[in-house]
Amino acid sequence: MALVYLNGQFCAPEQAAISPMDRGFLFGDGLYEVVPSYNGQFVGFTLHIHRLNNGLAELNIAGTPTLEEWQNICRRVLDSHEETNLGLYIQVTRGVVAQRGHAYPSATVKPTVFVYAFPIPTPRSAEITSCTPYRVVTQQDQRWQRCDVKTTSLLGNVMHYQHGREQHSDETLLFNPRGQLTEASTSNVFVLCGETVYTAPLDNQLLPGITRHILLDLLHADKKFKVIEQAVDKAQLAAADEVWITSSSREVVPVISIDGVPVGCGEIGPGWLHAFKLYSQGKFNY
C-alpha cells in the first residue's frame, strides 16, 4: 500500500489530515522540496535537504528531521509504491497554532512535516529526437523579493506560469526592473552565446536550483564551455545561440523561441545535447 508520512506517522493518503489552523494553510508559512528518483535512485537528495535546511534557518523553524532521518522517511515512502520513477514531495510548515496571528508563535510549536510520492515520467534519453523543445514568453518579475527561499507561497509563480499558458507557451522568463533575466516561473535559465554559458548569479531574485547546481558543476568539470554566472540583459538574450531551462522535474530543456522569435536557428542545438548528456550521466552522483 502506498504510504505518506505526516508528523511521525506513516499512513494511507486518505488518512492524513492537517488542521486548518496550520500556518502553512493560513499564511503559506512553510517550505517544500521535490526530489526526483528513478529506479530507486535519488537525484541530488543531500542538496535538496541542504537547501531546505537553509530555508528553515531563514524562517526560524526548528525541530525538523536530520539528514539521516529524512533519508529513512523518504526511503520508506518510496518503497511503499509499485512505480519505479517517483517524485518525493517534502513540505515543512511552522505548525499548528490555536489563534491566527502574523507574528511567529513560540518555539514550542512543532512544525508540520509531510512527505508523499507521485509518479513521474521515465527520464528522456540524451538524444535530440527524444526531446520536445519549449516555446516561452517573457514578463517583468512581479514576485516577492526573497525568491531564494523555496516557500509554499507560490501564487506569484503560478500567475507568471499561467500567463505563459494563456499565451500558448511552455514557460515564462522573468526580468527584473533593470531588464536583467533572473529565472523563469518554475525553472532556472541558461544562455549559450558562442562557447560561453551564462546563468544569473545566485541572490534573492532567484531560487538556487538543484538541477542548476548539478549542471553548473558538470559544465565546469567538462570544460567544453566557459561558464559565467552573470546577469543577462534582453539584448544578450535576443542574440543567444541557445537557451535552456532547468528544474528537478524537467531536467534540462532547450528553448527554441522567445515571444515568438526563434532562438538561434530555431532548432534544438548541439550545446543543449552536450549539456544534457553530461547531466544524464552525472545526475546520480549528487
Descriptive terms for the model:
D-amino Acid Aminotransferase, Chain A, domain 1; 7 helices; 2 domains; six-stranded antiparallel sheet; 286 residues; D-amino Acid Aminotransferase, Chain A, domain 2; alpha+beta; ten-stranded mixed sheet
Q: What would you call the structural class?
A: alpha+beta
The topology string of helices and strands comes to: EEHEEHHEEEHEEEEHEEHEEEH
> What is the count of structural domains?
2
- Shape-level CATH architecture of the largest domain: Alpha-Beta Barrel
Number of E-state strands: 16
Question: What is the percent of helical residues?
Answer: 25-40%
Largest beta-sheet characterization = 10 strands, mixed
Uncertain regions: pLDDT < 50 for 5+ in a row? none
Q: What is the fourth-level CATH superfamily of the largest domain?
A: D-amino Acid Aminotransferase, subunit A, domain 2
Give the N-to-C terminal Cα separation: 29 Å
Overall 3D shape: globular
What does this molecule look like?
The chain is of the alpha+beta class and 286 residues long. It folds into two domains: 4-119, 2-Layer Sandwich (D-amino Acid Aminotransferase, Chain A, domain 1); 128-285, D-amino Acid Aminotransferase, subunit A, domain 2 (D-amino Acid Aminotransferase, Chain A, domain 2), CATH 3.20.10. Helices cover 26% and strands 29% of the residues. It has helices spanning 23-27, 45-58, 67-79, 155-166, 210-222, 234-238, 270-282; strands spanning 4-6, 9-11, 30-38, 41-42, 85-93, 112-119, 134-140, 171-175, 180-184, 188-193, 196-199, 226-229, 232-233, 242-247, 251-258, 261-262. Strands 7, 8, 9, 10, 11, 12, 13, 14, 15 and 16 form a ten-stranded mixed beta sheet that branches. Strand 10 and strand 11 form a beta hairpin. Helix 5 (210-222) packs across helix 7. The model has no long low-confidence stretch (mean pLDDT 97).
